[in-house]
Amino acid sequence: MTSWRRFVEAGCHTGLDYSVLMLRTAMLLLKTLRVALILNVLIMLIQAAFAGRMLGGDGQALKLHEATAKVLVLLACGQVLLAGALRVKARCPLWVPLAAGALLAAEVLEFAAGHFHNVALHVPLGVAIFGGALRQLFWSMREPTAEITREFRPRQTT
Fold first, then answer.
1. Rounded CA Rg of the chain
2. Residue-wise burial string across 5-19, b where 16 or more C-beta atoms lie within 10 A, e elsewhere
3. What is d(CA 152, CA 16) in angstroms, rounded to the nearest whole number?
4. What pLDDT, in 10s, does the model give residues 43-71?
5. Distance (Å, rounded) from C-alpha 100 to C-alpha 128?
6. Is 4 a member of any domain?
7. CA distances from residue 142 to 64, 80, 101 in whole angstroms, order as listed
8. Which residue range forms the structural domain that includes residue 50?
9. What does the angle CA 137 – CA 142 – CA 43 come to, to the nearest 5 degrees?
10. What is the pTM (predicted TM-score) of this model?
11. Which of 80, 86, 99, 124 is packed most tightly, with the most Cβ within 10 A?
């Protein structure tokens, strides 16, 4: 048993129930994941615009496309951490952190395919990654903490 749980069960808290703290933590994690997913999808759209400009012959677009790829990989790392924490704290579906990990792996592969100019892999993989990111975003927006509140209802005191 953690020291915090012992502290709460001993009645030495400031009026906040442990389950209420867990609910607040879970809601904060979900909101943070939503923001990260929105940023991810928006940056992907910007990156697609840079790819289009590259096809039009803009030399600067290549550097911007590469820079946004690096940002997307770092953002995917953050999403894996957030999804894992959400799974541990709020018991979100298992597919959420697994999908975040799969998207991170796909983005690293995407980055490598782009670096080595393997367009046959780079373009379809980019479309698939965008679809996976949208799927996660739609889940996070549709899930108003229904699963979280089922798991962590405040205890009834009589």
1. 20
2. eeebeeeeeeeeebe
3. 13
4. 999 999 999 999 899 989 999 999 999 99
5. 13
6. no
7. 32, 19, 21
8. 23-151
9. 20
10. 0.78
11. 86
115 and 125 in contact (C-beta within 8 Å)? no
- Residue 131 counted as domain residue: yes
Total residues found in the chain within this entry: 158
- Separation between Cα atoms, residue 111 and residue 129, nearest integer Å: 12
Question: Is the residue at 6 inside a domain?
Answer: no
Look at residue 79 and tell me if it is in a domain. Answer: yes
CA–CA separation, 140 vs 67, rounded Å? Answer: 27
Residue in 8, 67, 47, 63 with CA at minimum distance from that of residue 125: 47
- Coil, strand or helix: which one is 16? coil
Using CA atoms, how far apart are residues 37 and 27, in angstroms rounded to an integer? 15
Give how many domains the chain has, as a whole number.
1
Read off the amino acid at residue 102.
Answer: A
Mean pLDDT estimate for the chain: 84
Tokens coding 5: 């749980």
| Helix intervals (H) in the chain | 3-9, 18-55, 59-90, 95-115, 119-142, 146-151
